[in-house]
Structure formats: C-alpha cells, structure tokens
Amino acid sequence: MFYNNLITFVALLLFFTGALNAAPVKVVAISEDFASIAKSIGKEHVAVKSLVLGSRNLHSINPKPSMVMMLKSADLLIRLGMSQDKWIDGLIYVARNPNLFPGKQGYLDASDNIEKLEVPQGNIDGSMGDVHLHGNPHYWLNPKNGIVIAEQIKQALTTLDPENASDYEANFFEFSETLGEKIKVWKQALQGYQNHNFVTYHKAWSYFFDGFNLNMAGELEPLPGIAPTTRHLVNLGRKLKESNSPTVVMSTIFYPKNVSQSFAKKQNAKFVFVSTSVGSDGVTSYMGLFDYLVKEVTQ
User: Fold this and answer.
1) In 3-state terms, what secondary structure has residue 37?
2) Residue 137 · residue 80 · CB < 8 Å
3) pLDDT of the residue at 132
4) Entry pTM
5) Could you say which of 3.30.420.40, 3.40.50.1980, 3.40.50.1380, 1.20.1250.20 is the CATH number of the domain covering 185-298?
6) For position 262, what pLDDT does the model report?
7) Can you give the pLDDT at residue 14?
C-alpha cells in the first residue's frame, strides 16, 4: 500500500511540475507592434498582451488601472524607451512587480540596440519645439529594426525560459528570414517612388523613409509639436514646386487629417492617411503593417 501511494505521489508531483513548467511566459508590450513580434518569437510558449491597442501617439497615453493589473502578473515588459513612454514608469511603480524593474530580467527597453535617427546635437531649448532628446522614437517603422527588436525579445525569453531556448532561436530565424524576403518585395514595390518628395505632418515616418530610401522633403509642422502656420505652408509649397518632383503627403491617423489633405490638394499631390501600428485598419501583424503601408503608398 505504501509503495503504491508513493508511486501515485511521485506521478502527481511530476504531472504538476510539468504543468508548471509548461505555463507560458506572460509578456506585456507597449503596443501591438511589439506584441506581434513577441508572438512570432514566443509562439505557443508565450501569452502576450498590449497596453495600447491600435495606432496611438505613444508619448501621450493616460494609464489605466487595467494596465497596472497586466503588469502585476507579467514576466516580461517590452517598452518603447527613449524617454517617450514615461507613463510606463508609473505603472511599474504601482504594480510593484520586482521582475519588471529596470535592470531585471523581465524589463526590456526595445530601443536599446536601435541605430537612432535625428538625435539632436548641442544645446536644446524650447524655441526648437518638442525635440526628442534621444532621437526619433518611431523606430519600429523601419522593418529592419523589426529584426533588431525580435532578437532582443528572443534573448529576453531565453533568459526567462531557458528550457525552450532552441524554439526561440528557431522562431527568430524563421521570423528574420521571412521578414528579410518581404523587405526585398516592399523595396521593389516602392522603387518607383524614390524620386518623389514625401511630406509629413510630423516626423513620424523618418525610419520608414530611411528603410526604403525615400526622400523626406519636409513637415507641415514648422517645428516639432508646433501647429502648421500659413507662412510655413506657403514656403514649403514653394520649395516643392521648385523641385519639379511628384509629391506624396503622408500623415498618421492621430494627426489632423484636414490640414494634410488640404495641403496635398493645393500641391496636386497624392494624399496618404495611414496608421502607424498593428491593430488599426485591419492590420493584424507586424509584417502585415508593411504590406498595408506599401499598398497605401503605391495604389
């Protein structure tokens, strides 16, 4: 009897130990862009949630109690970084999950290994507008940076869940290879637009233009975060006409549509009003985001 009970006890212990080991790594990402990449790398080994859904200005999010609850039980937090999501610091503090404190295994600033654009030099003051001290933060909009982000997520998951390290490595290889092939297709589709002038409302598309060798000709904002003025728009319009190149006015859905659309009409330019993130306009994945953006620019 004792022997049979011992066998049963050991079997149950092994079962529950296996069940615990099989529990997915709980990942919380700032947006659905990073969440999509995390799902591609973690697959069945992760349970992923997003703090922000769809295309939003990630600099100005009002934290909610539900976000705190997400962080309380999370194993890994993926944030934008570059001092552009400081509202997350408050969530970390209130959630009091020691795994997510900066420097801990569950804390990932996805900007760490990114080659940053438009990092200001010299003295910065208010007369320069809303300048980003650490550079342009919209780095996920260059698909090459998607591979950089994915590698960091792979490393974080491997640290948290070493038993599935080989799966994370294989998933990262699959993701990076597939994305690399897609980049070739997107570049080919946009090749005919490399002689165009691209104008944006705000410098949200710098990484997209850099990734696809497109010409960023100017912004409707005279300075970052400053609303367009008549004088600036007139001067920008004159500059575009003097270039004798076709113009594309490209704006995001969280900036005023009427201003960009009106400017495009006056310039006889193509107007593209699009999302910057997974979760809007029917976009369900990181690669799908670029399928969508390239189609909107070229159609």
Assistant:
1) helix
2) yes
3) 67
4) 0.89
5) 3.40.50.1980
6) 97
7) 41
- CATH code of domain 2-114+127-182: 3.40.50.1980
Burial of residue 224, with CB atoms counted within 10 A of its CB: 0-12 exposed, 13-18 middle, 19 or more buried: middle
Q: Which among 144, 70, 90 is positioned nearest to 113, based on CA atoms?
A: 144
**Contact criterion met (CB below 8 Å) for 129 and 99:** no
Query: Residue 96 and residue 110: Cα distance in Å, rounded?
Result: 21
The contacts found for 58-63 with CB under 8 angstroms, 24 or more apart, are 58/30, 58/31, 58/84, 58/85, 58/137, 59/84, 59/85, 59/137, 61/85, 61/87, 62/87, 63/87, 63/88, 63/90, 63/91
Q: What is the pLDDT of residue 12?
A: 45
Greatest Cα pair distance in the chain: 95
Q: Please name the residues in contact with 160: beta carbons below 8 A apart, sequence gap of 6 or more.
A: 25, 75, 76, 105, 106
Low-confidence ranges of the chain (pLDDT < 70): 1-21, 124-132
Pairing of strands 107-109, 25-31: unpaired
Instruction: Tokens for 19, please give them.
Output: 């069940």
Which pLDDT belongs to residue 10?
42
Tokens of 191: 């090749």
From the list 54, 160, 152, the residue with the least C-alpha distance to 111 is 152
- Per-residue model confidence (pLDDT) at position 19: 44
Residue in this structure with the two tokens 């004792």, named with its chain if needed:
2
- Domain residue ranges in the chain: 2-114+127-182, 185-298
